[in-house]
Amino acid sequence: MLKLYDYSRSGNCYKIRLLLNQLEIVYQRIPIDILQGESRTPEFLAMSPVGKTPVLEISPGQYLTESNAIIYYLAGGSDFLPTDRWERAQVMQWLFFEQYSHEPNIATVRFWISILQQAEQRREAIAQKQQLGYAALEVMEQHLTKHDYFVGDRYSIADIALYAYTHVAEEGNFDLSKFPAILGWCNRTTRQPKHITISAT
Amino acid sequence: MLKLYDYSRSGNCYKIRLLLNQLEIVYQRIPIDILQGESRTPEFLAMSPVGKTPVLEISPGQYLTESNAIIYYLAGGSDFLPTDRWERAQVMQWLFFEQYSHEPNIATVRFWISILQQAEQRREAIAQKQQLGYAALEVMEQHLTKHDYFVGDRYSIADIALYAYTHVAEEGNFDLSKFPAILGWCNRTTRQPKHITISAT
């Protein structure tokens, strides 16, 4: 059985839980409390040299890291990953956009404000990252004004990856009310079969 | 014919040029001077809403962005992208590692020091990013101590993606002499058929 090493409040981990549920794949969830240093132990670093959750254990000793590589792996052969070469390239484009321009800004600010509760100590860095985070939201808004989903006008792992931290962006004090197309897409995403919330156990 | 919108000193653009050369694909190179604001014009933003090079124009009006999505697209069906599901997942893992843990630190420091010449003004940010960059190099060194290449013990787009900014890391004042396995892998990479340097025209 697949094992998921998982920090419950992480959007990166939530991507995997959401897709596994939508694929109806049974797995074992192993909680990792990153705030207690559990992702920095020698045992954890042997699985994930970068010391980050999520980690997917495919078989004993066979580990996959990087949330978007994991959803790419799991979605292979399913409707969540297009087979058409151009559509698949666009999925990849949005997955890299998410990890480069979106997550380091939107997820990080949420982590500092709502998980570490360090809004005051990190005020300057937060302001800088919020500006970059809003730029990423603008790129999404522009796309979603013309499309229902990110690729091929149907729900895919590109939507799963981008939904994970977008729908909780307000926990990083991002004001989503300025982005009606994003809000509409969030609604469509939550109405997908077998959708689960980030806090589902 | 494919068109590549390209900033010559960018490692992200170099990934594409290197792979296109190794695939023996003829293309048109369109220089974009990011220092002169050429990646922020309305025309450029219509192709690449994030305002970044490289952009691959596949056919008129059909644009692909994100360097690692572009090499994934181009490598499809070639020896540079494994077809085995587990090997391909590992390629993806290293591509996301490169964009999340490596490029934002190693490439950014090189850009500040060697391209913008702002070593003094950005001293504090450079120190912070160098620490993270060295952590990424450590992860690579650990892997390359046991393997000749990143995935399946043969050269793939995972090597191309990681080579792009690693081999010029010294332009960001990273000391690569501490990483013998990385230096050996850089040597093996330069000996691949149809290898070109970052400054090849």
Structural account:
The structure is a homodimer of 201-residue chains. The first copy, chain A, has 201 residues and is an alpha+beta fold. Chain A has 2 domains: 2-75, 3-Layer(aba) Sandwich (Glutaredoxin); 85-190, Glutathione S-transferase Yfyf (Class Pi), Chain A, domain 2, CATH 1.20.1050.10. Chain A contains 7 helices and 4 strands, in the order E-H-E-H-E-E-H-H-H-H-H. Chain A has a 4-stranded mixed sheet, with helices on one face. The longest helix of chain A has 31 residues, at 85-115. Chain A is globular and about 45 Å long. The interface between A and B is medium-sized, with 34 and 34 residues.
Sheet bearing the most strands of chain A, described? 4 strands, mixed
CATH class of the largest domain in chain A: Mainly Alpha
Main interface pair?
Answer: A-B, 34 and 34 residues
Unreliable residue runs of chain A: none
On the 0-100 scale, what is the average pLDDT of chain A?
97
- Following the backbone from N to C, one meets helices and strands of chain A in this order, namely EHEHEEHHHHH
Distance from first to last alpha carbon of chain A: 18 Å
Shape of chain A: globular
The oligomerization state is homodimer
Number of H/I helices of chain A: 7
* Class per helix and strand makeup of chain A: alpha+beta
Helix content of chain A: 40-55%
Approximate strand percentage of chain A: 5-15%
Radius of gyration of chain A: 17 Å
Largest beta sheet: strand ordering of chain A: 2-1-3-4
- What is the CATH architecture annotation of the largest domain in chain A? Up-down Bundle
